[in-house]
Every structure is written in C-alpha cells, then in structure tokens.
Amino acid sequence: MARFALAVIMLHPLITINGVFLAAVFGYMFYNAYLHPLSKYPGPKLWAATMIPSVMSIIRGDMAVDCKRLHDQYGDIVRISPWELSYRNADAWKDIYAHRTGHTLLPKEPFFYSPVSGHPNIVFSDHATHARIRRTVANAFSEKALRQQEDLIKVHIDLLMQRLNEIADEKMSLDIVMWYNFCTFDLIGDLSLGQAFGCLRNSELHPWVRMQFLLNQSFSFFMTASMIPFGFKLFDLILGNGVLKARDEHVKLTDQAVKRRLATKTDRPDFLYFMQRDIGSEGDRLSVDELVSNAGALISAGSETTATLLSGATYHLLRNPEVMDKLCREIRGTFKSDEEINTVTLSGLKYLQAVMEEALRCYPPVPTGLPRIVPKGGEVLLGKYVPANTIVSVNNWASYQSAKFFKDPEKFVPERWMGDTRYADDDRKIFQPFSVGPRVCLGRNLAYMEMRLILAKVLYNFDLHLLPKSNNWMDQKALVKVQPWIFGNVHQAKVPFRELAKQVIRHFLVLLEQRETKLFQTMRDELSIDAKKPKEMFEKNGQQVLIRPANDPSGCDLLVMMWRFGGKMYNMRKFEAPHGCVPFAAGDAQYLHMASEGLDIRDNSGRFLGTGNGRTVSTSHSQSLSASALDPLSEEFLKLWERESDTTVAAALSKNSRTNP
Ligand code: HEM
C-alpha cells in the first residue's frame, strides 16, 4: 500500500500532465463538434470534432465517394472537417468560385495550392498575380492559337494510331489508359516544352512523366501534410524524401527543358511561342522562372486530365455496347477515311459531343472539390454566414452522381445531353467539370479538341473489347491512386526478337542515363551492352541481369529476362504488352519467355516447359508460380494475371471490322 502511495506520488506529475493533455484534447473535440461557429452545419460529429476522418478518407482515396455518401445523408452543405464545408448545389458554384457584386472573390486555399517550384503560375497563384499571368498565358489558348496547334496535335494522335495498329497487327491486348497517357503527355509536352516526351515512340513513360505520376499519386499526402503542423518535415522523415526529391528533380528537368526551348528561335505555334508574343502590356511579361513554372503547370493541367476523361469514356462505352454501337455508327458513317477526321468535320458529330459530356459527368477528371478559403470577416454563401478561414468547395462527383440533379445518375446515357424528354428534369446547372469564374479551365477548348480527335480516330480505326478483369474498373480510389492502369495482357507474343532486344537495350540505356540508382551505374560498368549486336549474349550469373537471346547456345529460341536487385524485384512494367512481355509485380525473381512457332520453351536451367506456337508466353515465378507454358488467352492465364498483377483493367484491340457502317 505504501509502495502504491509512493508510486502515485512519484508519477503524480506525469498523471497530471496526461490528464490535462487528455482533457484538452477532448475539450477541443467537444468545442469543435458542438460550440464551433460551424457546429450548426450538418455532418457527422466525428468528422467535425477532428480532422482524422477526412485525412483518412483522403489517404484511402475515398473522399469523392465519402462526400457523396455524406451529402446523400446530410443535404446540400456538409461539414467534412472542423474547418471545411462541402457543397452540392448549383448556386454554390457562383458563390464560391465567381465574382459577385459586393463580395470578395474567395482566394484559393493556400496550402492546397502551393506552387512546387516556389514561383507562381496560372494554377498556383493569388488572384492578383493570376490576373497578370492569365492575360499572357491565355494567348496560347486563343482560337487562333488553337487553329495553328491542330497540326502539332495531330502528329501525336497519328502516331498513337500507328502504334495501336501495330498492337492490333500483333493481336495483343493493351492498357488503353497507358496509351492515352502516352499520347496526351507527348502532345502537351510538345506544346509546353517544344519537345514530346517520346512516350508513344518508346512505348513507355518518360522519367519526367513518371515523376509527374509519382507526384500526382502523392498528392493526397501533400494535402494531408499541408494540414498538419510540420507535416512536410514529417512526410519527409517517413517517406525518406523520395517524393520530395522527385518533386525537386521534376522542377529541375522542367527548368532545363524550358530554357533549352527558349534558347531556340522557332515559329512553331507552341505555348511558349504565344506566351512570349502578343503580350497585352509590358508589365504582363513573364519572367523566365514564371515561364518555367507555367510550363510545368500546363503539363500537369493538360495531360492526365484528358487521358483520364478518355479512359472513363472508353470504359463506359465498352460497358454499354448499345451506346458504343451508336457512336461507332455516327463516326464510321460520317467519314470515308481517317484523313477526313479533323476539328471542323468533327464539330457536326452530336452524339460524340454528348458522349463527352456524359463521360465528364460519370467520370470527372477532377472528382472532388477545389478548395477556396473564406477571407477575414467571413462570407455569406447560399444565404448562410460562413466564418473566416473556413475551407469551402463544390464536390463534382458527389453532385453529378446524385439523383437530386440527374435521373438515373449511375447510368451512362449520352441522350440526356441531346434533349431526350426522359431526362428533361436533369438540373444541368450543377454540371461544371471545368469549374467557373476567373479560374475556369483555360484549356477547355483544347481539351475538347484533343478528346474528340483521339476518341473519334480510335473508334474509326479499331474495335475495342473489354477484358473480364476490367469489369470493375470504376471501383477505384481517387487521389491516392489517381488512376489505375489498364494493363494489356499479351494475345500474341510474336515479337521480332531484334525489335524486342532493341527495346530492352534502349530501356536499359535510358535507365542508366537517368542514373536511377547507383546499381544501374554499376551495371553499366559491368555489362558491355552493345546495341548494334542484339544477338550477342549478355549474361552475368547469379546476379541482377540475364538476357539470353534467340538461337543461343542452349539451342532454344528463347528470351529470358531476369532482373533482381538485392532480393527485391525491380518493376517489370518496362517489358509489358507492346514488347510482348508480361509484367508481374511481386516476387524476387522472374523469367519471361517468348517462343517462336514449333520451338522448345525452356527455363533458365534448360528444363523443358512446352512448345512455342508463336503466341505462347510462359512465365515462371520463383515465389508463387511454378514454371509453365500458358496460352495467354486461357482462363488459367487470366486467373494468374488477376492474382499476380495489381492492375484493374485490360482491353483488347482489333482493327475496325466495319460491321457497323
Ligand atoms: C477533360 C479535361 C480537363 C478538365 C476536366 C479540366 C478541369 C479543370 C478545372 C476544374 C480547373 C480549375 C482548377 C482550379 O480551380 O484549381 C482547371 C484549370 C485549368 N486548366 Fe483544365 N481541365 C482539363 C483539361 C485541360 C487542358 C487540356 C489544359 C491545357 C493545358 C488545361 C489547362 C488548365 C489551366 C491553365 C487551368 C488554370 C486556369 C486558371 O486558373 O486561370 N486544362 N481545369
């Protein structure tokens, strides 16, 4: 007893401190939930008491879905954190994002919108700076500019068609999201930096683009970090600053590319050409740092957004064959050849336009809300007082998927945009996928032009089929994983070895040049890769790389790649569908085999696996798969694919069968 009393006396200060701390925390939560000026707004009390539920929702990538659920439950305005309100109301667009007489234009929420490079740009800037920047950048998006840019754009779309043709010839399936991204990144890179990223040419993401994806995928962490005191420092500590490094590297590469482009005198009608010319007043001229910052912002704003919309449109078309048929009939009935397809000829295609709108409704590239902050003195929004420093936004997906605004909201019905009387009561005023007001999307016309051209050409030239594993593609997360890939699995592995070897070697060299890891550097020293002798055998036993080309001394027409670093499997995406290889994510060793017709397939140790038929892809996986020769279209193959890869959608491609004239 005496001991207990002594312990209590000794621990007394600690107990007191803990007690005070807990009381303060609970007091703070109670205040937030019941006494805070926002407490009269409806919403779950737990979300109002602390930011933990909203942060968790962002990190899980569930924010868009959670907001819809909360709006369905609580109404048009929901409190989704101690200091944040989400709106689902057509008039809220005007109140939050547009100029109103007698009111201040709400500023962008500063943490969410902090420029990566430190220099302001059209997206990340306060309203005063923005007005100056927008006057200049808008030159690059005028009707005149757009007309001149069509030829630049078409080069990349034509290259996309060429690459898809090759895939169709090889009867391979594909990751259509990836290919849309290749195209839109190349296209916007060309317009912003004066040079394409070469994604379409090399069938892979340029390191700059990969970094962009990493940054996009880390966006939720950035958002979360911005909400927590010292969040960025913490973030840095936890993630070993890989993402922050990527961010800095990204800025550096953009800087170099823009400066290279500025040093070139050219009449190409790209963004930098217009941003430097025809400037309204001398005071509007952008500094080089601002040009760099804006080029980066334009690539971010204009690449993944359009690719995302195209992916959503393609998925919904594939899930709704009657809509797909109708659209194909419109496109194929209008044009006699691919060359006839251009912006002017496409403008008459009403159903195509309706499909675009419906895709923007069902799969908006900006699914959540764009945060604005209520300034000092507070504001009246939708007739209700909102205190200063409250974050407010209109939630796109929650609005567009609501039965309050759209009949059959979950159905993909382009007819609702064409005056179909069944949908006469749809409230289209809520539909603002490009936002409104002075920060409305500047690239809207360019986006429509690109999306129409790409979709029309894809559907004119090809028949698409959704592979079974892609059926639930919509069950994905926003923000954490902005956009899962639609991987293609291989129908036919009849890849000319020479081409394949060239791709592999080129890839190695790119990686080596990028100095992605020290290991790669060591490899370069240790392996003498000679691109001119693709049939030469490169082998390094029991270690990182083994490439055994066709007709090698073991007597089989076989390509084996094994790539292992320090017990960790390196990402095999580089060798995916276009090269005829199958990417598997897990495990610590991997072999990919492609065999020509009639030839033996053997594994690394010479063990017989099967006979090649020109289409056979066999895989052996050290951890979970026993070596076997599989027909890639077989059920077994699909099951393995399902189990082994973290991908969600796959599509098969074949040339337009002209069954729908
Ligand atoms: C389907 C495609 C697209 C969608 C849905 C979309 C949507 C949006 C949205 C919602 C905003 C407002 C952002 C905010 O308030 O923070 C925005 C801004 C912007 N978008 Fe787009 N966008 C698309 C394509 C493009 C393209 C192709 C470009 C060309 C580079 C582009 C350039 C911009 C720019 C420059 C801004 C900033 C405008 C400003 O603040 O003055 N967008 N976009």
TrEMBL record:
PROSITE patterns recorded: CYTOCHROME_P450
Domain of life: Eukaryota
Residues that, per the record, bind heme: C441
GO MF, any single term: iron ion binding
Pfam families recorded: p450
Segments crossing the lipid bilayer: 6-31
Family annotation (CDD domains): CYP60B-like (cd11058)
Keywords, comma-separated and alphabetical: Heme, Iron, Membrane, Metal-binding, Monooxygenase, Oxidoreductase, Transmembrane, Transmembrane helix
Known cofactor(s): heme
Family assignment from sequence similarity: Belongs to the cytochrome P450 family.
Name this polypeptide is given: Uncharacterized protein
